[in-house]
Structure to design on (384 residues):
């Protein structure tokens, strides 16, 4: 089987979309070792970089310097001709888009849609960005043989916002990097904590500091519990703009500087230790397509508090605690429950770890391989 991928983010993106792309490629190669993988990139990665694949892989890059300079157009407008020349059985757009004209090739196409937040909350995106995202997403959903949704929430949004045929959608959860499932020694955790200047117990928050992620409510909850529970809040993620400024101003005004530690973008290699060193993981986001940090926390054997609604119960499972996103009083009560009840905390950790097994690369690879097989073996049609 010849399978092509838009591999730009796998090699040149350090955020969640890059992590998903790398996990999917690793998982598919393990699941389908005899398949030939065609990786379409705006430029060839440097040998020996942070991510590489072994086995039967072929890189495709722009054929001319002009196309290399205009690589976004190459990926959108010229890639279909490359796909036709390579005689792919399957092409998988890993991040919300497919090249224009792919429907005119003989190749079956799959697109992963991570979320439609730009349609649900358009005010949180610049005007041009959301128009471009919407156009690419509508096209991909219309022409794809199969649409992979990160969650049931995203599946429902695809039907509601883009009128996507539900029979065309398959829900396949993202996977957690295998490093999170590996228990680290106390020495390794202590070493990482020391490098970041962390001492004592802490609540961990991971994610960009934006209004939708709702860090403000978590800061207010920490303010409520700090007298009874001596604990700091450690925030991994960057922020800017008015929302971040308002959070910082509140911290200063309430003299919480010693209780809230901002790490910015922590080294991804340190994140497993930062998770495993935490007493609680809190994720009071308003809305997500999946909420990968929740799954990372469960894999790291950390109890989770997150929000009601959206996709959060899919990621968090039955063992996590759920509160209304802006109810900082309920969030404070949930923190106190976990931190004061060792039996509850152990139960949440053990049950959460079991739920976290849904988010392994093995499961992701198996589901994607099944979809590819259905498409390749379909007779007389190009969808599932």
């Amino acid at each position: 089987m010849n399978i092509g991928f838009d591999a730009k983010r796998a090699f040149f993106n350090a955020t969640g979309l890059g992590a998903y792309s790398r996990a999917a490629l690793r998982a598919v190669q393990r699941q389908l070792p005899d398949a030939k993988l065609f990786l379409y990139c705006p430029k060839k990665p440097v040998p020996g970089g942070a991510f590489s694949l072994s086995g039967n892989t072929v890189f495709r890059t722009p054929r001319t310097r002009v196309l290399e300079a205009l690589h976004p157009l190459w990926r959108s407008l010229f890639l279909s001709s490359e796909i036709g020349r390579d005689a792919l059985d399957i092409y998988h757009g890993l991040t919300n888009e497919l090249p224009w004209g792919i429907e005119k090739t003989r190749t079956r196409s799959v697109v992963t849609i991570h979320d439609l937040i730009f349609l649900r909350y358009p005010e949180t995106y610049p005007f041009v960005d959301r128009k471009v995202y919407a156009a690419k997403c509508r096209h991909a959903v219309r022409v794809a043989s199969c649409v992979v949704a990160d969650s049931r929430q995203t599946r429902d949004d695809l039907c509601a916002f883009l009128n996507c045929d539900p029979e065309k959608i398959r829900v396949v959860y993202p996977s957690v990097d295998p490093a999170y499932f590996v228990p680290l020694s106390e020495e390794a955790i202590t070493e990482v904590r020391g490098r970041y200047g962390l001492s004592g117990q802490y609540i961990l928050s991971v994610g960009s500091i934006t209004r939708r992620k709702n860090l403000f409510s978590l800061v207010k909850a920490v303010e409520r519990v700090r007298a009874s529970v001596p604990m700091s809040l450690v925030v991994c993620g960057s922020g800017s703009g008015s929302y971040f400024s308002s959070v910082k101003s509140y911290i200063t005004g309430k003299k919480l500087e010693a209780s809230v530690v901002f790490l910015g973008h922590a080294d991804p290699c340190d994140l497993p230790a930062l998770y495993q060193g935490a007493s609680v993981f809190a994720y009071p986001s308003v809305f997500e397509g999946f909420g990968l940090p929740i799954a990372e926390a469960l894999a790291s054997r950390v109890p989770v508090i997150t929000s009601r609604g959206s996709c959060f119960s899919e990621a968090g499972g039955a063992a996590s605690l759920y509160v209304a996103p802006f109810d900082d009083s309920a969030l404070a009560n949930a923190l106190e429950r976990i931190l004061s009840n060792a039996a509850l905390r152990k139960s949440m950790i053990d049950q959460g770890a079991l739920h976290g097994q849904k988010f392994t690369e093995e499961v992701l690879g198996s589901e994607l391989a099944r979809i590819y097989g259905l498409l390749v073996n379909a007779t007389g049609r190009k969808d599932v």
